[in-house]
Amino acid sequence: MRQIYDVCHNVAKIEEYTIDGQKQPLCVHRKGATRAFPAGHPDIPDVYRGIGQPVLIPGDMGRCSYVALGTEIAMKESFGSTCHGAGRVQSRAAAKRSLRGVDVAKALAARGITVRTGSIASLAEEASEAYKDVSEVVDITHKAGISRKVARAIPMGVIKG
Questions:
Q1: By CB atoms within 10 Å of each CB, which of 14, 37, 53, 134 scores lowest?
Q2: Is the overall model pTM greater than 0.70, yes or no?
Q3: Do 160 and 122 contact (CB within 8 A), yes or no?
């Protein structure tokens, strides 16, 4: 497969922001978040600078994921950040106690989603039931203006290492 775009999340970077009217360097730690820089920002690769930073917002194995764009509002409200996924409602251990990987695999297969994994049992920890609904989270970030929805992607396959 040819890689189209790669973006990191769960990182800390020194970036410059205006605080109380003064530009100053800040260490911005994004945990469960990713950059959402607006069009024209100098840290966006040239190919995307005219539209804003592409933001990949993954869903879970059984629900959709999104592509969004960074915004000027994100720079003012969230240090150029938006969500990177929906977040968990169950810990990995709790999901493994309440679900069986084989049942998760069957449910995904019934929906036409191909699964490849080294451990069927490990699928339970990433089941849809263990996560918030990413569509609801993305709708909130879109309405708040910290990222702009562009596309929704439906899963066709899952690779769980």
A1: 14
A2: yes
A3: yes
Pairing of the two strands 114-117 and 157-160? parallel
pLDDT tens digit string along 47-104? 999 999 999 999 999 999 999 999 999 999 999 999 999 999 999 999 999 999 999 9
- Cβ(124)–Cβ(107) below 8 Å: no
Full domain range(s) for residue 73:
11-87+134-160
- 111 lies in a domain? no
Query: Is 116 a domain residue?
Result: no
Any domain includes 49:
yes
Rounded to an integer, what distance in angstroms lies between the CA atom of residue 14 and that of residue 154? 35
pLDDT at 1 over 80: no
DSSP 106: H
In a domain, residue 108? The reply is no
Where in the sequence numbering do the catalytic residues fall?
84
Number of domains in the chain: 1
